[in-house]
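This week, think about what follows.
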Amino acid sequence: MRRRLLAVLTALIGTAVLLLALPLADSYARGRTEHLLLQRRADGVRFAELADRIRTDADRRELDAELTRYAQLYGAAVTVVDTAGNTVGRAGPAPTGPAARQAEDRALTGRSTEALPTVLPWGPDTVVLAEPVGQDERVGGAVLVTVPTGAARHDVLVRWALIAAGAVTAFGAAALVAAGLARWLLRPVHELDRAVATVAGGRFELRVAADTGPPELLRLRRHFDGMAQAVAESLRRQRDFVADASHQLRNPLAALVLQLENAEPHVGPGPGRQAHALALDEADRLGELLDGLLVLARLEAAAAPVAEQDVTAAVAGRVAAWVPVFEAGGLELTAELAPGLRALGLPDAAGRILDALLDNAGKFVPAGERVRVVAVAPPEGGAAVRVTDCGPGVPAEQLPLLLRRFTRSPEHQNVPGTGLGLAIADELARASGGSLTVAPARPHGLTVEFRLPGA
C-alpha cells in the first residue's frame, strides 16, 4: 500500500513540477527571442534610414562602410535591396530560404518583421528580420539582417539548465515530504495489520504501538485495543470456566465412582450387575472427558514460549514407549526417522502430539495390522511426522470433522474415547506455530501428519 501511495503522490508531484517548469522554460525562450528581435530591429531601422538618405556615391560608400563594420562587430550579415529586389549594399552572405523571401516581401510592402522563430538550444542557427526603406507609400527597398543566434541559444540553454535543476530539486524535496507523509499515514495501518495477524494467531496480549498518524487511525487503534482486550477477557473467562468446571466436577465424579465400586459387592448376578458395570464404564468415560477438557483449557491459556527441540529424539522415545502397548494389542509399530530433525514448538510438543496420534491409532486399528511412523525434513524446514495406519479409515466427507472437539465417526461410536484426542493434538500443533492434517491412506486406513516450523 505504501508503494502504491508513493507512486500516486510521486506521479502527481512530477506532473505538477512539469506543468510549472515547461511553461517557464517556454516563456523564457520566447522572451529571449523577443529581446533578440528588439535589439536587431533597432539596427535594421538605422540601416533603413541610411539607405533612404542615399543620394550620391559618398552616401553609398558611407552605407557600405557601416554595413561592413556592423558585420565584423556582430558577425551578422546585412543586405539592402531596392523595390525590384536588386542589391544596393551588402556585408556578408545574402540571406536565402523561404523565411528570408517572406521577410523581404513583407518589408517591400511597408511592414517590419514582428516575430522570429523561437530560439531553442538546438536551433535555429540564424534568423532573418527585415525593415522597409522609406515609409508608407514611399517604400524604396528593404534591409535584411541575418542574425546568428549562438548567444541567445546559449542563454536559453543556461536558463533551461537552471530551471531543470530547480525542478529536480523541488521534485526531490516534494518526494521526501511525500515519503514522510506516506510513512506517517500508514504507520498505524501497518501496526494494526501486525496486531490483527498476531491476534488471529491466538495472542491477545499484543496492543498497537503506533502513537502517531491521522486522528481517525489513532481512534481506530484505540478501538482495536479495546476490542482485543474485551475478546481476551471473554476468552479468559471462558477458559477459566471450563478449567474450573472440569476441576470441580472431578471431586463428585471420584466420589460417585467410589460409591459405585463400594456398591459392587451388594449387586447380585443378572441385569443389575450388567447395569452396574455400564455405569462404571460411563463414569470412567466421563473422567476421561473431564481430563481432556482440562488439558484443552490449559493449552489455550498457556503462555509458554516456543523453543527449539530435538524432534528425532522425541519421536524415537515415544515410539519406544508405545511399542509394548501395541504388541499387547496385537499390532505392529514401526518407525523411520530422519536423523537430526529439529523444530520449534511448545515444550515436548512433538512427543505430546505423537502420543495423541498413536493412542488414536491403537483404538481403531484391528489386531494384526501395522502402524507406521515416519519423520522427515520438509523443504520449508522444520520437521514433519506422519502416522499411517491400516485400519478401516474414515469416509472422505468426514475427514474435515475429525479435528473438531467431541466429533466421532458414526461407525466408531462404540470405540472407547472422548473425541478430544485429535483436537488436542491439533491445538498443540497450532500453538507451536505448525499444523496438523488428516488424509486417507492407501489402500485403506488413515494418515495423520503434523508439522512443526524450523528455527
